[in-house]
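Listing S7. Sequence submitted for prediction.
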Amino acid sequence: MASARSSDESLGSVFAALAANTAIATAKGTAAALTGSPALLAETLHTVADAGNEVLLYIAIRRSRQPADATHPFGYGPERYYWALLAAIGMFLVGGAVSIWDGIRALVHPPELEAFWVGVGVLVVAIVLDAASRVVALRQLRVQAERRGLSVRELLRESPDPTVVTIYLEDTIDVLGAVLALIALVVHRVTGSGIADALASIAIGALLCFIASRLTRRNRQLLTNQSVPDRYVEALRARLESQAEIHAVMRLEAVYLGPGEVLVAADIAMGDGLSGREVAAALARTRDELGRELPVVARLYLTPVER
């Protein structure tokens, strides 16, 4: 389960990525216009989509941090998943589909290559800036993974915080895409054929569509009340059953309310010989203890049932 601290920490990754992508998009757009390279145009569209995504992720973080109120008694945590879903769709349409279309068009009508060294210089700078942004996101992922006792790969697969994951995957594709565009530019210059440029544009678009599809699926899962991983459920079950007054946990369900909040509901079979007052006191004490031990559990509902 994620810590509530990840919300504030995610802002650093968002701001670093937004600053890098704004500068890179401007430079790539200028270079694409000067060189006529389809791969550079694809990279420009890619980076523009990324910069827009960072704005959406910033909105996601701000809106998801609103306190619970009468209209949203469980808080606004799912706002983050909604805006992150929009960011993934934007990546697919603006970055992926348009890049593939432009690559296909360039295969049919290959453009001439101009201002070669401008394109090379811009792509080298883009690789450096994207790599720096990726380092920031990776460092944040490692902090979160260490806190939860997971590897970065496991965290990417199951993290309830889509912001840092989105930025990390975006920056990874940014670096790969810029390298592909650079190789295509060099091949175009050496061979005089724009086919490599067009194929690079299609490859960049395909990579973006793949990552966008993965992020869309993950945010859809979180929006539809996905349960927390089984190992956390079993740990919660063991913790509840360690209470002297609790005989057994008959049923336990835990779902994400947001990146740093979990709702837990359990049916509890109490020990023999307890009066109604003693049952109520035992459950209240258990709620208080778990609330202190696991701040991520924002709501805990314990229902006494017959064995």
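Caption to Listing S7: primary sequence and predicted structure tokens for the chain studied. Residues 2-6 have pLDDT under 50 and may be disordered. The first strand starts at residue 246 and ends at 258.
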